[in-house]
TrEMBL record:
SUPFAM superfamilies: EAL domain-like, Nucleotide cyclase, PYP-like sensor domain (PAS domain). Residues 407-540 form the GGDEF domain. Residues 247-290 form the PAS domain. PROSITE patterns: EAL, GGDEF, PAC, PAS. InterPro entries: Biofilm_reg_signaling, EAL_dom, EAL_sf, GGDEF_dom, Nucleotide_cyclase, PAS, PAS-assoc_C, PAS-like_dom_sf. Residues 317-369 form the PAC domain. It comes from the Bacteria. It comes from Teichococcus aerophilus. The keyword Oxidoreductase does not apply. Residues 549-804 form the EAL domain. Pfam families: EAL (PF00563), GGDEF (PF00990), PAS_4 (PF08448). The lineage of its organism: Bacteria, Pseudomonadati, Pseudomonadota, Alphaproteobacteria, Acetobacterales. This is EAL domain-containing protein.
Amino acid sequence: MSEWTGSAAPPPAPWWSGGAALQWIVAHGGRRRAFQGGLVIAAMLFVLSLGVSLARISEQYRLEARIQRSGLWMAAQAQVELSRMMSVLHRHMLGDPDAGDAAVKLQYEILLSRLNLFSSGSGATEYAEMGRLQDRMPDIHALLAPVEGWLARLIDGDQEIDAQIDAALERLESLLRQAAQQLHLERQSAAADAMGGLRSLHWTLMGCMAGLLASVGLLLLLLRLESRRAHRMLVNAEAAARLQRQAERTLRVLIDSLPTMVSAYDRQGRYLFFNEAYARFHGLREDRLVIGCTPEALGVPMDAALELALGRQMPAPFMEFEATGANGEVRTLLATAAPVADDSGGAGQVVHVALDISDRKAAEQRVRHLAEHDALTDLPNRVLFANRLRHALSSARRQEECGLGRRSFALHCIDLDRFKDVNDSLGHQAGDSLLLAAAERMRACLRRGDTLARLGGDEFAILQTDVGEEEEVARLANRLVRVLGLPFVIDGCTVHTGASIGSVMAPLHGRSAQELQQCGDIALYRAKSEGRGRAVRFSPEMAAALTERRELEADLRVALRGSEELFLVYQPKFDLGRADPVGCEALLRWRHPRRGMISPAVFVPITEEAGLAADLSRLVLRLACGQIRAWMAQGLEVPVAVNLSAQHFAGDQALVLVQEALVAAGVPARLLEVEVTEGVFIRNADAAREALAALRALGVRVALDDFGTGYSSLSYLQHLPFDVVKVDRAFVRDLRPGYGSGVRVVDAIVRLAHGLGAQVVAEGVELPEQLEALRRLGCDSVQGFLLGRPMPPEELEALFDAGRQAAGKVA
């Protein structure tokens, strides 16, 4: 059987070798304690076996002695002597010379001596009957007490006393005979017990022998296990020594493979060890000429961490320092040093660790740059721009507090116009190119101390420092508008865009970054609302206007939650052939509780900017469909046209809104007409086509509003025929004498629409000559102030009733 060696776990031992027992013992206390416990168990087993054997042998001796005791013999001898006594008396009465007086006295004395043996013992009797005899000895003596006197009388010749002597001896004989019988039975029982004890003693001795053998075997096993343990300890010690040597080699390879520079020094600062990274950086070799020298002797500078650990014998925190490598390159190192205590706890060696963090420092600077700059244009982002804006405000405030006068600067908030259109039509790559080109143009307009930042999307901001007068702010803003208004060539395509700029002076219009940015946003909003492509400087009146707009937005939110402030009026449409009303257009109105009537041109843009377009459209559709149902209850079927925002057609929102309104009101889809402008195709042309096709499949009529004022109208009409094409009021306005071009344009629209199977509706008819011109051109329907202004539903109902009655009279 091979012995286990090495550091791995030993193989399992067979059951007969004690391996299982050893495993159990080891699992419950450890090898050493298991060995000591085994010795105690073996000793206890040995003593117990020996003690049990001696006790059982003593017990068997006692049983056998009980058999050999003389109780039964004494009883038998007493009976024999009694019989002899009675025989001697009988022969004495017959005159036998051998049974004379002396013989009678002698035999009586012998009988008494035999009886006295019953009471001669001092300990416990072996039989119960012997105890009873001893207890009755006083009665026996009392029985024999008169016998001696009677014998004297008998010897003297009194023959009559013989009967009394015989009676006493017979009673004694009866008593002895019973005792003998009982003692015989008890002796037989004791013999049986002795035989059983002998058999029990046999098995007990065998068990004790087995216990002795087991204890000896256990001792031998423990000695064998201890021997094996000692052997394993020796093998493990040798293996541990090998592992230690291997670990030392592995540790050396590991330390040499680390990019960290590791070195060790004695208490005088002399080299004890350094790894490959340290040697490469400082151009050293680990040999006898180097080990034992100080770093100064080899021209290696000592950093503060190493000096602290050597001088004060205390650990040094991580410290950064610059060191020149063997190649002459200056690198940034992060180092620490700590003393290693010797066996007595005193100051011993010092270990020094240094890590080259030059690349990490460069990466941190790069990360910091990325965190503060825009990834596309490499301009400062919102975070860095906000920091510079706060720094400019702090500098201006300190200069003013020091009495050096007011130092002004300007903030310009810039948005590129129509950037989303470029992004959607030419793609995001073209949009990125446009942003880069715009950034370069703006950067060319700035001075050295100015800051241009991209805040996100197409939002830019400029910090114009050291502004002496407001004209400087205006000149820079106008120059930016001019250069950004020039055409861009992006991927071979000429792109026309522009910029809206809101400018604010600091600290005139604000003494905090938040105030300045809010004022700049207000001026930018004004520039956009005035038609884009312009620069606007902030004024306090703009803030008041913005506050008013926010109040209107808040009031509009309240009105959309179910009040009766928002309501519909209906402008009728008339058939040019019969001059009868054929439908109407629903127009939304707002009766403000404090401001009175507010024009849709004011509050509709607010809803779109505030994200309330869907709520507003839902309200308009609900009111329109509810009115259609009310008219149907009165027997009128009036088609109603509703304008929907282009925002709803970028997905399926428009279809969902229309379906919800139709289902809620329970009206037929043919009585609802949805008017959309050509701007619906700007956001997502494919989604718009799908939404319009779904509406037409639902049965809803689709009208193209303001035809001719958008983009690529002919292409839209060709790919998705509309049910109705509405001629914009700008073309109807030109239907006057002397405006031949207006007639030709409307004529082309009518012919094109009819050619595609669509009806033509002209809006904004205010003059009779316009109505007559449209009739000659073949227009189907018209609407305008000339025939009917927007009216409440009751008036429109009356108008349709009048038309129905007139038609009945004609019929």
